[in-house]
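Section 5: illustrative case.
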């Protein structure tokens, strides 16, 4: 049964990245009419925006993908272990072509407001040009790291050269032979610096907090490796579904640092040093659970990645993380980051303890000690994770409450997919969902949403009302688990995983760290039980 109200679409989705593509498949399969809006000019989501030099996935491409089509899994070939942004975007184009999704996608269209009409049980969605569209279900597929975090540095508008956020890299920008300043030293800079430094006259990195950076060990996809992957794809998919971070890794090793000798620990670390995050999950089971095991892993990374690679001892010292555990901040993967600091044209500036930034001037960046002159300034300052994109528009629920106001002090949700007070509103990987291999989580969310819609249509239900009790229970559970992990230290080092990089919000628990596999199980339990977190009604209240 479809809506008794006349609407333009059954569902409106915001975001044409992995989430938009997955939702198009599953909602269309459920019999819904839909329109996917995106302010970008093309498909890709994150990969339509993050086009800075060196931008690539941190998950291996063969499981950083959607799994609803065995044909796509067989037909698509990745060129390397970690695909760049262009290859990932081409993959999404391939899927859209294969399933004729383009008629459902509308680009260059920003959604500025979505307001629930309680008397009619529908949403009115407004675009940037003032046009309105109506739908029964309003769904965010905007992604957890899509809204840029712009630092409050005086003088940004006075700089005479290009000054921009890294996720808005100007098309055709030439940096060869230019003096480049990069503010921020997170995952983006780790990927960007080695590429920019190859041709720039100079690159200066302004670092607040050094990261634990792990090796990527990039390599091409060979026919033999591809054959092995495709012959075992179902096993790889099952591994992702049952892994603590949604990765295609092996299950827990059964080993712990606590029960091993120092010699055994070093031997296992060395034998598994093959790149990717699998080193954390396939060596010892207590690396993220106890300070002692965590320190053993952190010390090993520092020795292998920094001390062995960075020639200048003072620079190596500045690049060494201190005072927080491994994974309190999300570690990036290395593609030559540390070696870049051995180049004569690369400089590191510590803006936390030695040279705080004072202002951006017409010709560069002024610190408390120097004036650094640049032709280009890149703000690699991260994102307003999990909630930023949702807060950037007016999402108005029951009683006229705007979602950003509800989340002023605490970004609560039901499993990251629904919010009390916002009927017929879904999110994909919203706050308090797990931090995991995103395509795996996205597909699990899309399936839960489509099953919910199918139930409503089969039973003639017009509206669902998320339970405030269920939201409180999930928020409390997420906080309890978070407090037991090493990630609870993230607020001390401005971790975006706690929103501690934002100046307009206090730090908060944004991520369910009980294990992605546990989270996926809870989604299935909810679906199998008829979605007890939601109250269904035949008509709008």
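Designed sequence:
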């Amino acid at each position: 049964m479809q809506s008794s109200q006349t609407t333009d679409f059954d569902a409106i989705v915001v975001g044409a990245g992995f989430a938009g593509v997955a939702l198009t498949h599953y909602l269309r399969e459920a019999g819904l009419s839909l329109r996917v809006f995106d302010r970008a000019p093309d498909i890709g989501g994150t990969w339509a925006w993050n086009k800075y030099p060196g931008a690539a996935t941190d998950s291996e491409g063969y499981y950083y993908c959607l799994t609803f089509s065995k044909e796509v899994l067989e037909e698509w070939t990745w060129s390397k272990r970690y695909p760049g942004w262009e290859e990932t975007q081409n993959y999404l184009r391939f899927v859209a072509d294969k399933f004729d999704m383009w008629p459902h996608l509308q680009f260059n269209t920003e959604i500025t407001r979505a307001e629930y009409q309680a008397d009619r049980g529908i949403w009115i969605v407004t675009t940037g040009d003032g046009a309105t569209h109506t739908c029964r279900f309003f769904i965010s597929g905007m992604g957890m790291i899509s809204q840029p975090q712009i630092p409050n540095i005086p003088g940004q508008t006075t700089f005479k050269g290009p000054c921009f956020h890294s996720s808005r890299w100007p098309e055709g920008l030439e940096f060869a032979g230019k003096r480049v300043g990069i503010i921020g030293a997170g995952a983006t800079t780790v990927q960007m610096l080695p590429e920019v430094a190859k041709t720039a006259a100079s690159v200066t990195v302004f670092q607040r907090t050094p990261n634990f950076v792990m090796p990527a060990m990039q390599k091409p996809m060979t026919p033999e490796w591809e054959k092995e992957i495709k012959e075992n794809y179902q096993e790889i998919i099952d591994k992702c579904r049952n892994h603590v971070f949604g990765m295609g890794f092996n299950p827990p090793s059964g080993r712990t640092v606590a029960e091993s000798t120092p010699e055994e620990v070093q031997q296992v670390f060395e034998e598994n040093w093959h790149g990717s995050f699998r080193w954390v999950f396939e060596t010892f089971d207590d690396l993220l659970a106890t300070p002692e095991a965590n320190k053993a892993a952190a010390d090993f990374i520092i020795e292998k990645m920094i001390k062995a690679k960075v020639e200048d001892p003072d620079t190596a010292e500045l690049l060494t993380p201190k005072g927080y555990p491994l994974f309190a901040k999300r570690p990036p993967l290395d593609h030559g980051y540390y070696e870049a600091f051995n180049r004569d044209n690369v400089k590191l500036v510590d803006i936390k303890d030695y040279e705080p930034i004072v202002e951006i001037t017409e010709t560069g960046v002024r610190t408390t000690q120097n004036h650094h002159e640049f032709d280009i300034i890149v703000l690699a300052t991260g994102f307003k994770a999990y909630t930023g994109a949702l807060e950037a528009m007016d999402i108005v629920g029951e009683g006229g409450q705007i979602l950003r106001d509800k989340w002023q002090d605490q970004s609560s949700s039901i499993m990251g997919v629904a919010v009390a007070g916002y009927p017929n509103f879904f999110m994909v990987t919203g706050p308090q969902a797990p931090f995991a291999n995103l395509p795996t989580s996205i597909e699990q969310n899309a399936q839960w949403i489509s099953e919910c819609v199918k139930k409503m249509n089969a039973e003639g239900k017009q509206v669902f009302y998320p339970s405030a009790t269920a939201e409180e229970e999930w928020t409390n559970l997420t906080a309890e688990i978070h407090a037991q992990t090493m990630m609870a230290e993230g607020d001390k080092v401005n971790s975006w995983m706690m929103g501690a990089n934002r100046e307009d919000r206090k730090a908060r628990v944004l991520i369910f760290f009980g294990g992605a596999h546990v989270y996926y199980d809870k989604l299935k339990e909810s679906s199998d039980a008829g979605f007890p977190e939601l109250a269904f009604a035949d008509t709008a209240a």
